[in-house]
Design brief:
Number of helices of chain B: 0
Order of helices and strands of chain A: EEEEEEEEEEEE
Distance between the termini of chain A: 41 Å
Strand content of chain A: over 45%
Helix content of chain B: under 10%
Oligomer: heterodimer
Order of helices and strands of chain B: EEEEEEEEEEE
Distance between the termini of chain B: 31 Å
Mean pLDDT of chain B: 93
Low-confidence stretches of chain B: none
Number of helices of chain A: 0
Radius of gyration of chain B: 13 Å
Shape of chain A: globular
Mean pLDDT of chain A: 91
Largest interface: A-B, 28 and 28 residues
C-alpha cells in the first residue's frame, strides 16, 4: 500500500533562513507521481509541483527547489531565504494510479512558521 | 483563485441530519475529487469522478455518496451525520483525471455537526 511520511510536524525558522521539508514515500509501483501542496492560513490548497518517477532531475522554481531521490524514496522540498509569506502547512502527496482512476495519498503535513 | 468553486462555504447542522455539498470544477476539467480534512485524520481522499462516472474510491463512508452531473458539477451527500464528520471538505478538479494531472482545489466547505 502507498504511504507518505512527513516526519517534521512543525518547523520554525527566522526569515531569510533556508529550510528543508522532508517527504518519504512508500509504493510498490514503478510508475508514480509525487506532489507538493501548500495550505496557507487562509485554508486553500495550492499546487506547487508534480514529479514523475522516471524523472529524478532536481527542480528549482525561484526560492523553491525539490530534491527527488528514488534510492531513498524521498522527495524533499527546500525554501531558500524564507519569507513570512511562506508560513503554511505543506503537504507531500503520492499517486500511483495508471491513466485513469487516481488514488491520492497525502502525508500528514509539515507546519512551517517563518518568524520576522 | 483556482477556478474551482464550492458551496456553501460554511455549514452547521445537527447530528442525524443530511447535507449536500456542491462543487463546480475548473472550466474544461473533466475530473472531480472529494477530500475530507480533519484534525485527527489529515487529508483523506474520498472519491473521484471522471466525466460523470466514478473512477476511484478512497476512505468514503457508506453514509456518504457523491455524483457528477452532465454539466460536470459534483455533489457530495453526507447523511446520518455524526460529530466526527465535522471537517473541511475539499473538492478538486483536474483535466483528464490521470495520475499525472495536478489537482486544483476549491476553497472548501467547513462542516460543523453539533
Amino acid at each position: 500500500a502507498q504511504k507518505v511520511t512527513q516526519a517534521q510536524t512543525e518547523i520554525s525558522v527566522v526569515e531569510k533562513e533556508d529550510v528543508t521539508l522532508d517527504c518519504v514515500y512508500e509504493t510498490r509501483d514503478t510508475t508514480y507521481y509525487l506532489f507538493w501542496y501548500k495550505q496557507p492560513p487562509s485554508g486553500e490548497l495550492v499546487f506547487l509541483i508534480r514529479r514523475n518517477s522516471f524523472d529524478e532531475q532536481n527542480e528549482i522554481s525561484g526560492r523553491y527547489s525539490w530534491n527527488f531521490q528514488k534510492s531513498t524514496s524521498s522527495f524533499n522540498f527546500t525554501i531558500t531565504a524564507s519569507q513570512v509569506v511562506d508560513s503554511a502547512v505543506y503537504f507531500c502527496a503520492l499517486s500511483e494510479a495508471d491513466n485513469y482512476g487516481q488514488n491520492f495519498v497525502f502525508g500528514p503535513g509539515t507546519r512551517l512558521s517563518v518568524l520576522p | 483563485d483556482s477556478g474551482v468553486t464550492q458551496t456553501p462555504k460554511h455549514l452547521i447542522t445537527a447530528t442525524g441530519q443530511r447535507v449536500t455539498l456542491r462543487c463546480s470544477p475548473r472550466s474544461g476539467d473533466l475530473s472531480v475529487y472529494w477530500y475530507q480534512q480533519s484534525l485527527d485524520q489529515g487529508l483523506q481522499f474520498l472519491i473521484q469522478y471522471y466525466n460523470g462516472e466514478e473512477r476511484a474510491k478512497g476512505n468514503i463512508l457508506e453514509r456518504f455518496s457523491a455524483q457528477q452531473f452532465p454539466d460536470l458539477h459534483s455533489e457530495l451527500n453526507l447523511s446520518s451525520l455524526e460529530l466526527g464528520d465535522s471537517a473541511l471538505y475539499f473538492c478538486a478538479s483536474s483535466g483528464r483525471g490521470g495520475a499525472r494531472d495536478e489537482q486544483y482545489f476549491g476553497p472548501g466547505t467547513r462542516l460543523t455537526v453539533t
